Amino acid sequence: MNPLIxxxxxxxxxxxxxxxxxxxxxIREARFVKSNGVADGSVHALxxxxxRADAGRCDISQPDFLxxxxxxxxxxxxxxxxxxxxxxxxxxxxxxxxxxxxxxxxVNANATAKARAGVRGHANAxxxxxxxxxxxDGTITRFGWKAQNKSLLMFAGEAYNVEMGVxxxxxxxxxxxxxNCQGGSATPNDTSNFSxxxxxxxxxxxxxxxxxxxxxxxxxxxxxxxxxxxGEAQFKNVGCSLCHTPTLMTGTAIASGSATVPSVALSNxxxxxxxxLLVHHMGTGLADGITQGSAGxxxxxxxxLWGVGQRVYFLHDGRxxxxxxxxxxxxxxxxEANQVIQSFNALSDAPQWGGAKLVRPxxxxxxxxxxxxxxxxxxxxxxxxxRPVRESRARYGSRAARDGGxxxxxxxxxxxxxxxxxxxLPVLRRGGRGCGGEWGxxxxxxxxxxxxx
Length: 453
Ligand code: HEC
What we know:
By secondary structure, the protein is mainly α. It folds into two domains: 92-146 and 217-359, no CATH class; 164-216 and 364-450, no CATH class. Helices cover 34% and strands 5% of the residues. The strands form four sheets. A three-stranded antiparallel β-sheet has the order 4-1-5, with no helix packed on it. Helix 5 packs across helix 6 (205-214) and helix 12 packs across helix 13 (408-431). The longest helix is centred in the C-terminal third of the chain and has 24 residues, at 408-431. The two termini are 29 Å apart.
């Protein structure tokens, strides 16, 4: 059940459920291509808190998302509104630990095959490179559907403010500063707290949440079969891997918890992500008209395919649940993938071959949850980094409602991480094992756990 439906009217709120949110459809956030005639591109709140018992005299209006289109695919409605679903977080810590030099070296790998297939990798730099670069420090950005976010801390900070309405040290201002709608809280809502103990409680919520996501292991592939091995070969033969690079190595990475000891889980590991982390022109069929950083209107980051077998909705706006459809949708005028998809379609048994089989059958989600739970049972760190979400819910519930809870992280929270976090809570309540000064040591050890299963 899509949790956004309940948010619409929680505690007396009077929001209409937007047409593109359905009980069995994906969580979506809405961006407006233009507002008042000028380019916009930003996320608009789905809901407002007006009417809620805890909203006082707050009186603001819910945005208008009409005209409605197809509720499941989100296509065909108001053409000024475009959608994104959340990106998965499992394995994100490894993605963060890939050096820029590795991404750049991979641009030049298989150059002849890429040139022959028309796959370019992208010249979209703010500062003269050929990947999406951070406007802040000129390094490569890599999270989000357009690779627009630099780091997991940035991703968490943005999601806290944009998707949950919790201003923080990275994003100190409220997105809506209407005086009666601040719930009496000073800004930023979330900061670090030097007088807290144990030591981990000093962390701000966004830091703790970033730490949590950093250590979510990627899903392990199901054991290989003849079919998946064939699929893997075809995946390379037809050229999927020209964009969906099977493996990039991480560098040496320090995880939070120790200032000096590299994380075993994150350092010098193969990240089997099936992405080059570049943005590519994907044609008129997928274009959303939005520019972010140096990713233009029809450009998207090669979606990492690890764990894709556990996904229900595909492509940036969740337009389909059919993986073969998702592959065929790569082709449209202007797409760098056109030739590859032509080769894919030319395979005699296209829908059956491993394209679907290779990426589809992965370890069941319950394994991932079990694995995450094992972290918690064995590693108090996991418990401790769960604190922010639980506390955030209590502290900032109404703010979260105002801003809609509609984005990538909140879907991460509701659909995946929250399931996991909910599983953590009983452990916390039962045992309440403390963290304290052990945190540093634990963070090193958690690394090894991440490779289990
Ligand atoms: C030119 C680069 C490129 C090539 C070639 C390519 N892809 Fe993709 N792929 C992408 C991009 C970019 C996205 C994200 C598009 C979006 O969300 O709008 C994507 C998304 C996907 C998705 C959906 C993942 C998700 O998280 O929703 C699947 C599945 C997929 N690709 C499989 C394939 C297969 C199989 C092939 C080969 C037949 C292939 N791709 C070839 C760039 C490419």
